[in-house]
Design goal:
about 700 residues; mainly alpha; 24 helices; about 0% strand
Length: about 700
């Protein structure tokens, strides 16, 4: 302590300006308190010394912290295989597979699941067990490239199907595959490039404060590599079994897709869809979220539909063109839901997205401010392998090139004002998303709220500039698509770089890997979207595209299109009421917006997860391992169903799907659907709580 006080004195008396200031303060204090200044002078000097002692201690702590730098699993001075032909090929394949599977899932249920951990366990299983290589950084590169596909798909499906819906209505031509691909690629590349300058500030400097839950979990999975083979087998088993179930239902069609019970007198309806992906989604999201979604459906199908039919039987209510009783006679509860209840759900979802954004606004502002501060003072000067990023000139050239493509390529319906909106909102939301996934995780990142806010502002600006009608609406959707993809990819890039930081990966190589994954998924997503629309059409039972339908409604509403505003505002105030009661708005609203059959299947998955987690006679460690096995199996089921769904779409487009259709001779009815669901539940339990792993 004496040494520190001496150091403080030396520091103080080296500053003549500080001495003068102390004397001045002492004189002012003496005048106020009617005391000679020399009585207060020692006090002021001692106070200043203690202040400098404090600063000295603080400086010492900073030096100590610098000396206690984080040491990754693979040291910076060690070179191991990372960016290899094997990792690139495997990563690209998984980016396309998980991108396509998540696109199909998102267009069916309105949500996607993370591909990072499934990609990690598959890569570990193939590289370690099959190829007999021991390279954790190679496996990390595979999941880095592979997870980009899922994130890009999540951003694309939320918005771009709206262009197809307008084309179906005859308002515009069908969007070209070049347009879709360029929008996806530009958004994905911008998402990566906007995040790269933040890496040192967010991942390195704030390593202890920003945990990045998904990125850390993925690193833990990769570090537990000795179990990679067994876990990979679980994922592949899920893919194979789900593929069989999906083909039986939608390929052979011997079992109905929906098992439903209609209450004719009551006018309500309940049922479930017999699909493995829905069961898997319910298991992954857990019983709490699944229950909110199911309750939303119950309110819609067992309360609102009967009420509408009871009080408005002889009424012709917009947007319907017939009496409500005639609509029910023609299409049952489903017709009432699609004509009226769906709009209530849309209003609730839009409000839920805005509420989540408003609630996150202080965090968003603080996040952006802190990120900018960190970036200013967090410049990387290290030359170590683990500190290498893409050069800033490459980043700037890439950003300028993407904006130029968005602005100048005729295929993308965006003018200079739209390009400026993309740059401003893109950088802002990329920064926010990069930091927020570190604080609250990807699942709580309000990307949908960001997309809705962008769409609202962009549509109003475009309308104010004089560009109205379908051209203005297409421009708004294009801008919203790019921003949504930017935010999704920036969050994914942050999680992957956190994984790499923990493992000792080379950031520059990971960033290149992200760009490769974005390009691979971007080239594939256009074909997938086009294929699914050609096969079934968006808005159909097979691919309802809930988010895109919502975005379309928002744009139409602002541009002056006719919307049933009464129904929309019922949903708005229902969402506000739920928020006041502290009930999660978004899952409830999604449940109201989607058919009950779908949400009932998700609820069954949630109940299975509740059973797995709630067992009393199993220790916590084993229970956690079994729950993880179940999650991996479900991720495999989702991927397997998605791939078969795309295969069936191809068969439908080339008009050969009828070759496999056996529904004319074999139809097991509702009983078959119930048995199939029981078999799917048993398969999930087999690969979770009854899983016997081989060493």
């Amino acid at each position: 302590m004496n040494r520190l006080i001496k150091q403080g004195k030396n520091m103080l008396f080296e500053r003549a300006d500080m001495i003068k200031m102390i004397i001045k303060l002492a004189r002012q204090y003496g005048k106020v308190h009617k005391k000679p200044s020399f009585f207060t002078l020692p006090f002021c000097i001692n106070f200043a010394i203690m202040f400098y002692v404090y600063k000295s201690i603080q400086k010492g702590e900073e030096i100590m912290n610098e000396n206690k730098e984080f040491k990754p699993y693979i040291p910076a001075d060690k070179i191991t295989p990372e960016f290899t032909v094997t990792s690139i090929i495997m990563g690209v394949i998984l980016a396309v597979i998980f991108g396509a599977a998540n696109a199909y899932l998102g267009l069916r249920v309105g949500m996607t699941v993370s591909a990072s951990i499934p990609a990690a366990v598959i890569s570990m299983g193939v590289i370690r067990k099959i190829m007999k290589k021991n390279s954790i950084l190679e496996s990390n590169m595979v999941q880095t490239i592979g997870s980009a596909g899922e994130s890009l798909a999540a951003g694309a499906i939320f918005t771009m199907p709206a262009l197809f819906l307008w084309a179906e209505e005859g308002l515009c031509e069908m969007p070209g595959i070049v347009e879709i691909t360029l929008i996806a690629l530009c958004g994905g590349v911008l998402g990566v490039l906007f995040m790269v300058p933040l890496r040192n500030a967010l991942i390195v400097k704030e390593h202890a404060t920003l945990l990045y839950p998904e990125g850390t979990a993925c690193a833990d999975v990769l570090l537990a590599g000795e179990e990679g083979g067994a876990n990979a087998a679980t994922v592949f088993s899920g893919m194979g079994i789900a593929a069989i179930f999906k083909f039986v239902v939608d390929g052979l069609k011997v079992i109905p897709a929906d098992v439903a019970v209609a209450f004719k007198g009551f006018k309500g309806e309940i049922g479930m869809e017999c699909y493995p992906a829905l069961l898997g989604v319910g298991y992954i999201v857990g019983p709490r979220i699944a229950s909110f979604m199911f309750v939303g459906s119950l309110i819609g199908w067992m309360v609102l539909i009967p009420v509408i039919c009871l009080f408005g039987a002889d009424t012709v209510m917009y947007p319907g063109t017939e009496t409500i009783s005639a609509l029910y006679a023609a299409g049952g509860a489903s017709k009432i839901w699609s004509t009226y209840v769906k709009y209530i759900g849309a209003g609730a979802i839009a409000t839920g997205g805005i509420i989540s954004l408003i609630k996150s606004l202080p965090l968003i502002i603080a996040t952006f401010r802190d990120s900018m501060k960190s970036m200013k003072g967090g410049k990387n000067t290290s030359t170590e392998r683990t500190a290498q990023d893409l050069p800033m000139n490459v980043i700037l050239i890439g950003i300028v090139a993407m904006v130029a493509i968005i602005w100048l390529v005729p295929a993308i319906p965006v003018n200079p004002i739209g390009a400026l909106i993309i740059v401003i909102f893109g950088f802002f939301f990329a920064t926010v998303s990069s930091r927020m996934v570190g604080l609250v995780g990807s699942s709580n990142n309000p990307v949908s709220g960001m997309a809705i806010a962008t769409l609202l502002i962009a549509t109003m600006i475009i309308k104010a500039s004089g560009k109205t009608g379908i051209d203005g609406m297409k421009a708004a959707i294009a801008i919203g698509s790019v921003i949504c993809i930017v935010a999704a990819i920036a969050g994914d890039t942050s999680q992957d770089l956190k994984t790499g930081y923990l493992l000792g990966a080379t950031p520059k190589k990971q960033q290149i890997g992200e760009l490769i994954g974005v390009v691979a998924a971007g080239l594939a997503i256009g074909g997938v979207l086009y294929l699914l629309n050609t096969a079934w059409g968006y808005g159909s039972a097979e691919v309802p595209a809930p988010q895109a339908t919502l975005m379309k409604m928002i744009v139409e509403g602002i541009m002056g299109g006719k919307l049933p505003w009464t129904l929309v505002f019922i949903g708005v105030f229902l969402a506000i009421g739920l928020e006041i009661l502290r009930i999660p708005v978004m899952p409830f609203a999604i449940g109201l917006y989607l058919p009950i059959y779908l949400n009932a299947a998700i609820m069954i998955g949630g109940v299975v997860r509740m059973f797995v987690d709630g067992r009393k006679n199993v220790d916590d460690k084993k229970k956690e391992e079994q729950a993880t096995d179940g999650t991996l199996y479900c991720a495999g089921m989702i991927a397997g169903e998605g791939l078969v769904g795309i295969l069936l779409a191809i068969l439908a487009v080339v008009n050969v799907s009828s070759v496999f259709d056996l529904s004319g001779s074999i139809n097991l009815g509702n009983a078959g659907g119930v048995i199939l669901m029981l078999l799917m539940i048993l398969s999930l339990l087999k690969f979770s709580i009854w899983n016997k792993k081989k060493a």
